[in-house]
Design brief:
It contains 30 helices and eight strands. By secondary structure, the protein is an alpha+beta fold.
Length: 717
């Protein structure tokens, strides 16, 4: 596209070409921009070098030069150009954006990006800010800076005008069940009424609203020096959270919490933000150590392990065998704390063996004797795992070679972990019942006595006795409960609150309330029966967006209970939201059938719900209905976006259709997928994994170190 005198100058300061640094060289720069658009970067760089020699370090020339260097992956030269650019024109947002793109340190790159936003004019945001923002966003996420990463991700989406690509990245983040709800919700920036109470705060917040968070924070820091109003602390806390200033942010959140009523939601949530920031900065974790022991006779050791009912062999751990210097283990065994029971009838939690850890057996190598690595399932369980192996293998286990730290696990997760290894023949309903009871027992029994960094090294039992300190426990339980409710709509910690003597959060009456003012983390407490149709629609949409499962289920159930869905909500979506919460397969199938009917009534495609119904029909042995669904999808919906991939991918995954076969082509014989029709098929043991797989492979359950009770941890030497 031609560069015209009335276009904005490439330097990025927001002036038109005819009034800026490129006024005298517009024709030359037009040639450069055309070369860049045609991917003729060498020609562009030649012209730019000539212009720089004849006219000096013009910002427009350095701006385009940086773009050409970055496009050709000349990163060292691009960084040199950025440094030169900043020296020549420190007011150029493009110079700061180039510096951010070339900076290796994430925090420093974020600061440079902030300077770029500060120097930019809203009506002419330089295009280079978009890749600079994406680079900083990706780096923040890769370093575990979730609060700051998500803030930058939403800013990126807004800068792109909420384009589909940007919105999809935001949605991928908010739909992730492993990300705490408090991170995914919008931070409670001060309202306009609060801002108006402090002179100078309105200007600072106007900067903050357009992404100039550092500049806004610097202004607020100055205001705090003159008068420490609570609203200043609130604003500073939010901005520090955006910027990943964890220590300062935690201090501001706590100072703001102290200005609120002690047991108020606002105070507790502020303390929760403080705890999350501190844990993000310096996580409260425990080390998992690996011990290496020599083995005199690897064959004899392997045979002894196979013969023992206290050890379970993992037949296919799935390790690659393409590194001759670090060959994979010869055998892998799960260490149990007791023998696997031979009968499952009447099995109680006391009868279920627990995983103590994993053994990795390595045979003799050219420069090394045979050995085993033992990785415990819990941080403090290494010696117990070693003792169990020694009791099975006796003198076959030799001396200890090394002991080293291989990973760290969150203290709370480690303390509350329970690592069962279930007999494969056991009924999934019985597994779920036992596991659910044990989970709450562990929480109620162990949590009160746990000494945590968030509690200053004390336990909940100790600090709840101090009225001014119990807010720390309330905040911790809020984080814990809201995280679990994203998976289990019935989960609550009210019994633990009763035990500790702290108030139980009250139900929120939505009458005359503005739902948009209620944080996502409180929405599960809303009385949906008192909501207007508009409130119900807003609640369901927001809860679905941030994947707040309990709130979604509450709103969906109320929608289904009413005569018709509120405007903006599909009855099929409400019915579908209840499927995973149903207690039996019969209830799930009934909900899915109603969702299909609702789609047909609304003139929408029922294909997504048919795809959800298909595996349930196969698991319950209804092959006739399964064949009918496949036929319907193939004849009526196969050309809809994503349907063919999902259908045939599902059939291949279940073993019904061979990989690469393509469309079944009609007349597919449907029977139970391998392992589904016969719960005893294959023998062995399994531990419950995700909701997507009723019988995960034993390799997924090797050590009990993951949230699902297993991992395939092997750290090569």
């Amino acid at each position: 596209m031609a560069l015209e005198p009335n276009d904005f100058c490439p330097c990025g300061v927001g002036n038109k070409v005819k009034f800026c640094c490129s006024a005298d060289i517009v024709r030359d720069l037009d040639k450069v921009t055309r070369s860049i658009e045609g991917n003729q970067y060498a020609a562009a760089l030649t012209t730019l070098s000539t212009l720089e020699e004849s006219h000096g370090p013009l910002s427009s020339v350095l701006a385009l030069k940086g773009i050409a260097l970055l496009a050709t992956s000349q990163f060292e030269k691009a960084k040199e150009n950025a440094d030169h650019f900043l020296e020549a024109d420190p007011e150029s947002p493009v110079a700061w954006a180039q510096a951010a793109l070339g900076e290796e340190d994430t925090h420093e790159a974020m600061i440079q990006l902030q300077r770029a936003f500060e120097k930019s004019k809203m009506e002419s945001i330089p295009q280079l800010l978009v890749p600079a923002l994406q680079r900083v966003t990706d780096s923040l996420f890769s370093e575990g800076q979730m609060f700051s990463g998500f803030a930058h991700l939403t800013l990126q989406s807004a800068l792109l005008g909420n384009q589909e690509a940007g919105m999809m990245r935001v949605l991928q983040f908010t739909q992730n069940q492993n990300i705490p709800l408090i991170i995914k919700q919008q931070l409670p920036l001060p309202s306009d009424e609060e801002v108006a109470t402090v002179d100078g705060l309105e200007e600072a917040m106007s900067w903050g609203k357009r992404g100039v968070w550092l500049g806004a924070l610097e202004k607020i820091r100055t205001l705090i020096e003159s008068g420490d109003a609570p609203v200043l602390r609130k604003a500073a806390a939010c901005l520090c959270t955006y910027l990943g200033e964890c220590e300062e942010g935690a201090t501001h959140w706590r100072n703001y919490a102290a200005s609120c009523d002690q047991d108020s939601d606002e105070a507790i949530e502020s303390e929760a933000y403080a705890q999350m920031l501190e844990n993000q900065d310096t996580p409260d974790t425990r080390a998992i150590e690996k011990v290496t022991l020599t083995i005199e006779n690897a064959d004899a050791f392997n045979e002894q392990c196979i013969a023992s009912r206290q050890l379970h062999a993992i037949n296919d751990p799935g390790f690659a065998n393409d590194d001759p210097d670090n060959p994979p283990p010869r055998s892998v065994f799960v260490i149990l704390d007791k023998d696997m029971p031979t009968e499952v009838e009447g099995l109680t939690k006391a009868d279920v063996p627990l995983s103590l850890g994993t053994i990795y057996l390595f045979g003799k190598q050219t420069d090394r004797d045979a050995r085993i690595d033992i990785v415990p399932s819990k941080a403090k369980g290494l010696q117990e795992a070693i003792d169990a192996v020694s009791s099975v293998a006796g003198d076959l286990v030799g001396a200890e070679e090394t002991r080293e730290e291989v990973t760290n696990v969150p203290t709370i997760a480690d303390e509350l972990s329970w690592n069962p290894v279930w007999p494969r023949e056991m009924n999934p309903a019985d597994i779920e019942a036992i596991a659910g009871d044990v989970q709450m027992e562990l929480i109620n029994e162990r949590f009160p006595a746990m000494e945590l960094r968030a509690f200053g090294g004390k336990s909940a039992n100790e600090i709840v006795l101090d009225f001014d300190q119990r807010i720390k426990v309330q905040a911790m339980l809020l984080i814990f409960e809201s995280n679990m409710q994203c998976r289990d709509s019935s989960f609550t910690l009210d019994s633990l609150r009763d035990t500790l003597g702290i108030p139980i959060p009250e139900t929120i009456d939505p009458t005359d309330a503005d739902i948009s003012d209620i944080p996502d983390i409180r929405m599960s407490r809303l009385d949906v029966t008192k909501m207007t149709a508009e409130q119900l629609s807003q609640t369901f949409s927001r809860a679905s967006f941030v994947n707040s499962y309990k709130t979604t289920v509450n709103a969906a159930q109320e929608i289904v209970n009413r005569d018709e869905a509120p405007e903006g909500v599909s009855m099929a979506d409400a019915l579908g939201a209840l499927v995973d919460n149903a207690e039996t397969d019969e209830e799930r199938l009934e909900l899915l059938s109603k969702a299909v009917s609702a789609c047909q009534t609304d003139g929408r495609s029922p294909a997504p719900w048919l795809l959800r119904e298909l595996p349930l029909r196969l698991m319950t042995g209804d092959s006739a209905r399964a064949s009918e669904i496949i036929s319907t999808l193939e004849t009526k919906h196969i050309n809809e976006p994503g349907i063919s991939q999902q259908l045939y991918g599902m059939l291949m995954q279940m073993g019904i259709m061979p990989p690469g076969m393509g469309a079944p082509g009609g007349g597919v014989s449907i029977g139970p997928p391998p392992g589904m029709g016969d719960p005893t098929a294959g023998g062995g043991v399994w531990t419950p994994g995700s909701a997507e797989a009723d019988a995960p492979s034993a390799a997924d359950d090797a050590s009990g170190d993951s949230d699902d009770g297993g991992s395939k941890l092997w750290i090569p030497d």
